[in-house]
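Researcher: I've been going back and forth with a colleague about how Putative AraC family transcriptional regulator might be arranged in three dimensions. Neither of us has a model we trust, so I'd like an independent prediction. The organism is Ilumatobacter coccineus, in case that matters for your notes. Sequence below.
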Amino acid sequence: MHRVVVVAFPGVQSLDVAGPAEVFAGANSVMNATGADRAAGYHVTIASLDGGVVTTESAVRLDTESFASILEPIDTLVVAGGFAVWRHRSDPRFVAALDDLIARSTRLVTVCTGATLAAVTGALDGHRVTTHWARANRLAEAHPAVTVDADPIFIRSDLPGRHDVWSSAGVTAGIDLCLAIVEHDHSTEIAQEVGRWLVMYLRRPGGQSQFASPTWIRQAPVGPIQQAQESVIDDPGGDHRVAALAARVAMSERHFVRRFTDEVGLSPAKFVSRIRIDAARHELERSDDTVASIAARCGFGTAETLRRSLHRHLGVSPEAYRQRFSHAADSRTLIQHPPHTESSSA
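Model: Here is an independent structure prediction for Putative AraC family transcriptional regulator. You can compare it with whatever you and your colleague have in mind.
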């Protein structure tokens, strides 16, 4: 079996550990249910420096094996993150033991601030990696030999003669990354099935920005600017030029732009673009309408304008996005009942 070791430590973020472990266990369940070769599945071990019970930053307690007990070669080493990473990277014994695990691994995966731990061993030097957007600058400053890109939700950096490095942004992005690993190791169908039973809203491409969702857009306080925001969200395809928005809330254009930018953190044009992108994504996932129809309905005017905007924002074309994330495609299930997830920890 493919041996996966997930690195934990006191103060680890519990989801950074549990998310990847559940994805790999779910892949085993799907393969078992569909008659796939069990030997192609994943054997998951959660390990810490000295083994035993490790308490996470949220007080969840994890039963772990010790680093020293991991004797076999490691196919995939997953280094989890958490607020405590800076303390552990200052522990020479922890760093030396982690360096040994990395040296015996074929594929290195970092989740969230786990990149901070891997970086101190030198394993990420020369690689392009991502991490949680709020910790990216600190990682880049501490490790100038590492190219830190704070935008994507996950990145694969495969340099000749080096580790195959996969890194993800914060917490739940580790699930997206591990689903991509399952797809790489096995098939799109298996990865989609695992994502469906984990009730993932959608399985996101690695190139998608950490800031792609409108949940990242600040809502203005109650008042005219919030009213303008809501008018855009309610009708993405409407006339949302600055003059129209300002008139809608009875403000001068200059005053409106200044207030909007101060309260939302984006210019009106950038806000409208974000909302239209999200509306187009929603339509591509749920509708069989043509790209041209969706473009017109979401305010892009032409299919080509939508194509350029989506590629600039998410790194994919409308056609590729629909092919990968269409809910119609997801309706073709591999199994007709939730897979029974058995523990795969050693």
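Researcher: What would you highlight for our discussion?
Model: I'd start with this: The chain is about 45% helix and 15% strand. After that, consider the following. Strands lie at 2-7, 42-48, 52-55, 61-66, 74-79, 105-111, 128-129, 147-148, 154-158, 164-168.
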